[in-house]
Amino acid sequence: xxxxxxxxxxxxVKEQLADGSEQIFLAxxxxxxxxxxxxxxxxxxxxxxxxxxxDQGSDGKWHRKPEEKNIHHKAVQSGGN
Length: 81
Description:
Rna Polymerase Sigma Factor, Chain: A; flat; two-stranded antiparallel sheet; 81 residues; single chain; mainly alpha
């Protein structure tokens, strides 16, 4: 059954997630389950989503990656054809 709230996640998952990573995990897990994935595949998708923005620390918890200062998210326009 898909988890729809952070408190519905298994305790071993909640213990590792912190400061916003819970919402990323939950959103990815719910989306994967809604798309028909089984629970294990959905969990893999959710962990991969967390890994995109968080690193696992020596304490076993996930901490937000520092922002890269030289990266900007502006669109690059081409000269066209």
